[in-house]
Design brief:
The chain is an alpha+beta fold. It folds into three domains: 77 residues, no CATH class; 90 residues, Beta Barrel (OB fold (Dihydrolipoamide Acetyltransferase, E2P)), CATH 2.40.50; 111 residues, no CATH class. The chain has twelve helices and eight strands. It has a five-stranded antiparallel β-sheet with strand order 3-2-1-4-5. The chain has a three-stranded antiparallel β-sheet with strand order 7-6-8, with helices on both faces. A hairpin with a 4-residue loop joins strand 1 and strand 2. Helix 1 packs across helix 3. The chain is elongated, with a radius of gyration of 27 Å.
């Protein structure tokens, strides 16, 4: 998705003007005293000035105070918001209908939803993932890139691509897709639940994130319940196959720590047996599994 045309036009009025001001302070380029002269320079030359801006971000305060181009207060607030930039190497991971997904290369993984400018990011980078270097900045409650993006000629194999997908899912589970700046991570129970379910999703995830799983469930009763319920669900699949192989086709079973700890012909019977066998402090952890004959509803 592109930034609306009127906002793209406004961006290209504000950003070159700011970079001209930066250049006048840093003396990086000659013959760049107006936005038109500045834009006539090569991309590499303009990027040098852009980098000076983010190395000396306090220049924005001077620009706003002096307001050499007579911008409105609303326009100056947009410029002020650029102090909340993110300059990094990213993996341009996926193009969605609403925005393109930029995965930060730093840890922990974060996924940014970024809007295109004049040219669609999907048209510029049709084959993803691709590693890029750029600056992400806020613009009227959304995130854009600053018009300068450098792509790296790197080919990613299947294993690395799967790693990107894992990072994307982890980022979504932890923070959601970040669609505005500044971003302030807010830890909450729901985010931890989503992260734990992601960690437990597959055997590969469980092995890879084992220490993270233990950190999450340590001294958190609600998350320990989720952990045991999810693990019981995974165990039930193999138990169900094995029991059918030996002729057991109907019944209720309680699973805890990879073991069947109780059973019953009905759910009520199973729950009574769990009460008499499992310590009260562990009852919430027992996963109740109903084994049915194939084709039986």
């Amino acid at each position: 998705m592109r930034l609306p045309e009127e906002n793209v036009k406004l961006f290209y009025e504000l950003y070159p003007a700011l970079l001209v001001y930066v250049n006048s302070n840093q003396n990086t380029l000659k013959l760049a005293s107006t936005p038109e002269e500045f834009m006539a320079h090569s991309v590499n030359e303009r990027v040098q000035v852009r980098d000076q801006l983010y190395q000396h971000i306090e220049i924005i305060d001077s620009f706003i105070r002096e307001n050499p181009y007579g911008f409105s207060s609303q326009d100056l607030e947009i410029v002020r918001s650029w102090k909340h930039f993110t300059h990094d190497s990213f993996y341009l991971f996926r193009h969605l209908k609403k925005y393109s997904i930029f995965l930060a290369s730093s840890s922990p993984p974060k996924a940014y939803g970024v809007l295109s400018l004049s040219d669609s990011l999907k048209d510029l980078f049709p084959f993803v993932p691709v590693m890029v270097e750029t600056v992400l900045i806020p613009f009227k409650g959304q995130i854009i890139y600053d018009g300068y993006v450098r792509a790296y000629s790197i080919t990613f194999g299947g294993g690395i691509r799967r790693g990107f997908n894992d990072s994307y899912n982890e980022a979504k589970a932890t923070y959601g897709i970040i669609a505005s700046l500044p971003f302030e991570p807010k830890k909450n129970v729901q985010a931890d639940e989503e992260k734990l379910r992601f960690y437990l999703r597959s055997e590969r995830n469980r092995d890879y994130y084992w220490e993270d799983i233990q950190d999450l469930i340590y001294e958190n009763h609600a998350l320990r319940v989720i952990y045991h319920q999810e693990m019981g669900k995974f165990c039930a699949r193999s138990f169900g196959r094995r029991m059918r192989e030996i002729g057991i086709n109907d019944g209720w079973f309680g699973i805890l720590e990879g073991l069947i700890v109780a059973s019953g012909k009905t759910e009520a019977a199973l729950e009574e047996n769990i009460k008499s066998i499992v310590p009260p402090s562990m009852k919430e952890f027992v996963y109740l599994y109903c084994l049915k004959s194939k084709g039986k509803k």
